[in-house]
Amino acid sequence: MEHLGWLTIAMRLAMAMALGACVGIERELADRTAGFRTHSLVALGAAAFGTMSLFDTGSPSRIAAQVVTGVGFLIHVYAIGYMHGDPGFWRFFSYLNLFIFAMGSLSIAAEPIVKPGVPPDLLHYTDPMPQALVLTAIVITLSVAAFVMTMAYRSFQLNGDDEVSDDVEDRRIRELADRMSESDDAQEAFNDARV
Fold this sequence. Notes:
71% of the residues lie in helices and 0% in strands. The protein is mostly helical. α1 packs antiparallel against α2 (36-52) and α3 (62-82) crosses α5 (129-159). It starts with 5 loop residues before the first helix and ends with a helix. The model has no long low-confidence stretch (mean pLDDT 75).
């Protein structure tokens, strides 16, 4: 493991934030969303996450546990909307929480290193779970990155830029909500006038 001084860590984080800020400034000059503040903070967070993995404290499977927890959180957020109104809502989330708990506890298993004092018949045995979780995290990361890049490329092909326009259905729902809000305001004004 690499041992870093505090000055080196601070310089790495500052450099990441500065590079993210450069991307953000470029986006703001082009009148695009997600500008200076967003890109600088995302770059800082990514650099902090990567730098944290260089410290020689804890298990090497720590990053895999964090990826499992992060992906589990995203699944929870998505499933809240997807399962809304379903009669098995509570059962689904009970099973999902149990699954995430089990995966999180598996990812803190013993490191894939043979420790001293292991009996000779178990000398070549190591715990395969950390390697499996790291490979799973790599596959998930690559697949999500490929999906995002494909969507950005397709958006660029269709629109000539990487900005995603509002969906027609989203626009109609927003207009309907505005009309309902206006009619509610009119109803309240009518009721106030009657009193």
